[in-house]
Structures are given as structure tokens and as C-alpha cells.
Amino acid sequence: MKSSTLLVMASLALIAAACNNSSTEEKADNTPVCYDVTLPAPCLELCAPLPQDETDEAYSAITENKFHNSKSDPLSTFSIDVDAASYSNVRKKLMDGVLPPADAVRIEEFINYFSYSYPKPAGKEPFAIYTEYAECPWNSKHTLLQIGLKGKEIDAMHAAPNNLVFLLDVSGSMDEPDKLPLLKRAFRLMIPKLRAEDRVSIVVYAGNAGLILDGARGDQQEKIIDALDKLEAGGSTAGGEGINLAYATAKEHYLKNGNNRIILSTDGDFNVGISSVPELEKLIAAKREEGIYLSVLGFGQGNLKDNTMETLADKGNGNYYFIDNILEARKVLVSQFGGTLSTIAKDVKIQVEFNPARVKEYRLIGYENRMLAAEDFNDDKKDAGELGAGHCVTALYEIVPAGSSDSKANVDDLKYSGQPGSSGSPDLATVKFRYKGAKKNDTTSFCLQKVVYPLAALKEKSSSNMKLAAAVSEFGMLLRDSNEKGDASYEEAITLASAAKANDEEGYVAGLIDLMKIAKDLKGTAPVTGE
User: Fold this and answer.
1) Neighbours of 30 (CB within 10 A)
2) Which residues contact 278 (CB under 8 A, 6 or more apart)?
């Protein structure tokens, strides 16, 4: 016992010495430079937090997208996704010295956590379109097609008025530093962004639900903050009752020409009242048709119901974020205030038609729970993702070029699959975008399209947009131990991300690189949660 204590003390001394010899300036995602230090295995084992393999967290299973043969299956259709909860949740685990379970890693949310230098919309359309084609870093026989959307930015001070209901979980499970205390600090950051024309209500739920603030003006900051400060955690979790009360409150203060939104903040543990996911989905989907949307903020570790929270936000025409620290709260509720609250396009879908003369096989990286049938693209009744003001959406396709000897789809060429005229076309693919306006009564979609040509840039010559998206994708595949990771490595991902740091004003890419280094050190030494 004495020798173990001495070893722990020596390990702590090693950490202190390393940090003292490094810069400790904090970056925008709260990752000090001293985390770059590679610790010996004994130190990792002794100094990391206790393994979390007995947690009660829940994640939806992910079956990774496979390669498709473009002759037999030339269409790929999916809904956009601007959620970013997966990245910040995984960041929290890595910073705690624990590798995440594979199903916690949704690669599209890793990609969409970051901003890209896409062109801003210039015309009447709510978003601008960006495409790029380049070599694939983890498989020299493959290429990558990047598709990006950049939403129109709205000045939050001149945006439509907000009718906001903060639906806050104050049950006993929230009585931890990274839950209710962090939640209260997070919303305090948001309050100064509100205006006199905005309305704020606060509904809380534990054993019962209650209305503690009813339609306060946005400029009544002290009144709102005082209501937040009085919150205490305790009791069971009447989530269904709280949601019903929140919708009733939102309806009472409904703004016909405004943004009506509930912001649910919780660790996702619903166990009293309407608790089944189908019941909650049905309720929330019905309310979105009335023009009341739902966004979700997740807090804490140990019993995070990630699957439920993602589903609720999806059905509520909102977004799902995970708040792991106060800097993430600032990013979501201050820096991205307009995008978090203001929807500029509804039911945004993307459909890519690949030219078999140029593309042998393809796969969409991530978006597994956002895939749609080909016929869903033209079905205006089919729900899809929403785009917020100023938001970026990015998708990557990994492509096996035509003529390549490589094959991933394991499908024979079809005898009767001739593609009239395709062999003479110079197109790599045609990308179509379908969306509706943001208003409640906007029920008819519009369609845009863009042709992509097959001139692949060298990996070194690709843009910082492509390098960053590829680096994040590679990182996600390594964390998931993907069957499609090819020659991916942490060293390669770090090199790509480092080349994309030029415009990293907020330090998010620098934080990404730190996480990659931590994951590289932990791989094979730290226990995986949720197993």
C-alpha cells in the first residue's frame, strides 16, 4: 500500500513538472497545452479517473454506412444534421482519461462541430453551396467528395422576437457539479442576449413539474437570473409532466411571427409520467406542426440518455448539444445564439446522383441515422433536418473511382444496368438540395442542384476545409475502430488538422489536436465506457 501511494505521488509530481514546463494558456475549448504531455502507462493507469464501465448511459446503435455500387445504386439520400453533442460528449470523456464507447461517436456531429470557410449566401436562397473533390488521406486508391452548406446569418438584435421556455431538469440525478450548477451558469451567459420583445418562461420538473417564471420580458435580466439562482436539485424525474407544462406555457405566449421554442436541459433520465420514447416522439412531433420547436441541451456523465435526447431534438425541429464546460455553453448560447434559436430552412435533404462512368463505388461517412429512401427526397411530408442561421453543414463521401481495381461493395456488375449517355458525361455527380421555408405555413419545398466535376486535388493541395473535415473524419473512424479506416492514423489526422489551423480564431482546431493526442495515448491503455 505504501509503495502504491509513493508511486501515485511520484506520478503527480511528474504531471506537475510537465505542466510547469509547458504553456498553460487555456484554449477556447478549455484544453490547456500541458495535456500534450505523453504520460507513461503506469501514470495513465493511476492518475486517470476511475473507469466508467458501470454507467447507465444509453446510445443508439450505429451500423456504419457501407460502400454502394454506383451502377446498381447511383442515388444517395440523407437529411442534414447540425447537432454537435457527440463531439463535446466524447471530448468530456477523453478529458476525463477514458475512451468513449463506439456508439457515442457520431462522425457527422464531429464534422459539423467545426465551422468552415464556405461562401456566404449572396442571393435569396437561405444557404450557399460548396463542393470540393480531392484525394483520400487514409486510402490512396480512393477520393473524397466534400459537400457543404453555409446558412444565411441573421443579426440576433434584429431577428424575430423569441418566445422561449426553459424546461429544466432539477431532479436528484442533476445534483452534480457538471449538471445543474453548470446549467445555471450556462443560461446566465445567454440572458444578456435577450431583448425587451423576447419572452422567457421557466418550467422545472423533478417529482412534479412547476412554472417558476411566466413570460418575463427579455430585458428583465435580474428577475430571470434570480429565478435560475433559486433552483435546487432533488426528487424523481417527471419529464413527461414537465414537457406538457412547457408546451402549454409556450402556447400561452405564442408569437405568430416569432420564434417559439422550448429548450430542454437535462441528463436525459425520464422515469415518471410519459417516459416511453414513442409517446414523447408523438407529442413533440405534433407540437412542431403547431410552430413550437424543441431543442435539447445535455449535461453530465454517468446516466446520460443520449439516444432519447437526440431523438427528441430531431422530432422537435431543434438541435441537440452537450454542454461539457462553460466554454461550450458560451459557444452554443452566445456565439451561435442566432443559429441555436432561429431556423432559416426546414426539412433540408440532400440527394447525390453518382455517374457510374466516373464513380465505381461510394459511401457516405456518418449520417447513419439520417439516411432516407430515394423517394423521400421528393416527399414534402417526410421530415428532415433544420438549418439554423449561420450554421454550416458538411458531408463527406469516400469514393472508389471508376477503373479502380479496388472494390468494397462486393456486388457483381448487373447485366442490364446500362446507363444511357452516362459514359460521355464529364460529371462526377449531381448534388440536389431540397428545403422548405422556415415559417409554420411553408409546406412546399424548393430544389437546388450543383454539378461536381471529377478533377481531384492532391491531398497536399486540398483546401483547409477539406483537410479539417478529413482530419475529423479520420479521428472519428479511429475512435470507432471503423472497418473502413484503411491506413488512418492519429499522426496523419494530427498533420491534416494542423494544416487547417490558419483561421482558428476560437481555438477549436487546436483543441481537436489536443484531443487526438490524448486519444492516441489512451488507446489500448484506458478502459472503454459502456462495455
Assistant:
1) 15
2) none
Residue 452 has pLDDT above 60, yes or no: yes
Q: How many Å apart are CA 276 and CA 102, to the nearest integer?
A: 25
Cβ-count burial 261-290 (b if 16+ within 10 Å, e if not)? bbbbbbbbbbebbbeeeeebbebbeebbee
Rounded distance, CA 82 to CA 113, Å?
8
Angle at 27 between CA 180 and CA 480, to 5 degrees: 75
Rounded distance, CA 426 to CA 424, Å? 7
Would you say residue 420 has pLDDT above 70?
no
Secondary structure class of 366 (helix, strand, coil): coil
pLDDT at 359: 96
Side chain identity, residue 359: V
Which among 166, 497, 125 has a CA at the least distance from the CA of 340? Answer: 166
How many Å apart are CA 27 and CA 154, to the nearest integer? 27
Contact partners, residue 435, CB within 8 Å, separation at least 6: 126, 127, 345, 346, 347, 348, 349, 387, 445, 446
User: The cell 434584429 sits on which residue?
Assistant: 158
Q: At a CB cut-off of 8 Å and minimum separation 6, what does 308 contact?
A: 58, 268, 270, 277, 280
The predicted-structure confidence for 219-244, as pLDDT tens digits, reads as follows 999 999 999 999 998 877 666 788 89
pLDDT band for 504, please (50, 70, 90 cuts): confident
Q: Which of 27-41, 235-249, 316-330, 375-389 has the lowest mean pLDDT?
A: 27-41
Compute the distance between CA of residue 26 and CA of residue 507 in angstroms, rounded to an integer.
Answer: 9
User: Which segments within 124-244 are labelled E, that is strand?
Assistant: 127-135, 143-151, 162-169, 199-205, 209-217
393's CB contacts (< 8 A; 6+ apart) are: 80, 81, 82, 112, 148, 149, 151, 348, 387
Region for residue 194 given its phi and psi (left: phi exceeds 0; alpha: psi -120 to 50; beta: otherwise):
beta
> What is the C-alpha to C-alpha distance for residues 455 and 76, in angstroms, rounded to an integer?
21
Mean pLDDT estimate for the chain = 86
**End-to-end Cα spacing for the chain:** 29
- Does residue 427 have a pLDDT over 90? yes
Average pLDDT of the residues in 456-465: 89
Left (φ > 0), alpha (ψ -120 to 50) or beta: where does 11 sit? alpha
